[in-house]
Write the structure tokens for this entry.
Amino acid sequence: MTTRWLTSKEQRAWRAYIAATHLLEDAIDRQLQQDAGMPHLYYSILANLSDAPEHRLRMTDLAERTKITRSRLTYAVTRLEKDGLLRRENCRWDKRGSVAALTEEGMATLERTAPGHVATVRASLFDQLTEEQVDQLEEICTGIARALESDDARPAPDEVPWRRRSSPSCP
Amino acid sequence: MTTRWLTSKEQRAWRAYIAATHLLEDAIDRQLQQDAGMPHLYYSILANLSDAPEHRLRMTDLAERTKITRSRLTYAVTRLEKDGLLRRENCRWDKRGSVAALTEEGMATLERTAPGHVATVRASLFDQLTEEQVDQLEEICTGIARALESDDARPAPDEVPWRRRSSPSCP
DNA sequence: TAGGTTTGTTTCAAACTTGAACCAAGCCCG
DNA sequence: CGGGCTTGGTTCAAGTTTGAAACAAACCTA
């Protein structure tokens, strides 16, 4: 089958997408590194914990929410633990598991740095968009994420493996 | 001034954005690593060169187009040069400068791997979007990029330094 | 035209990411 | 029970990214 290249409209969109995502990720990383001493991902990990019941989550759940690999998470959590911002506990219901728990200090760091982070996200993203564009962005991103998570991902036009995880952190 | 937190609509959009961009970047990196033995950024570098007149660009231009730092580019170009996919030449008009030039082999690699790459971009992104959404995405991303490039970036509500670069690669 | 600043690029060490391999602990079924 | 498969996490080496510092050529400007 002969390749269906991108139309010029698609090319423009793709280029704009690449530029925007690189620039945005850079801006946010820079700001957080500056003000919180950590990159965006690490901040997200703390933020996810602070949203969770009891400020704690299983490693796998955390990886799932932040959309990163387990090994990347392990490294990040080790660093954050060293910094005293979270603590590793072992899961009571599954002896294999470990749980990351936000510490007081982690919570404090989050509270101290959240305003600056939000301000950056606003200035870089939401201040540039109309209300409708915010809706559109959500719609678009949700669609992309759905596709990639369900492995509609592959160009290959064939069967869907359909393995999904379950296992909550507290049964 | 008291922080203006994200509305729940904005939060949803932001989370969706993070998820989509992570998943998409991962999917594309995985595919290219698999089929071309290099991550997306490296492919982009080659692609940008192939688009340029004479298949060559100044380092700074290349960094500008790919939206990455000069030092990151230096590393990437060194690797690609080692692989024989491009060559470094020194700029004839500016003795400080160096120029990256796509080799035959680089061009061949690009030609060989482009179809797979396009297929992945399509499957992961464009196949999920309506025509209007493609327009919306372009619009949104262009806005974000414009803001971040002109340093409307900063949350700080003050003066704009306004330093812009010029200097084309071939005067 | 000398001296100071700016611009283009590289270098270096420290931090981070990747993917494959590994180790347990749970799970399943004869 | 007793293997064998799956799942949750970590480890390790190789590769990549970061940011600050170093260099060198180019560009002022008095």
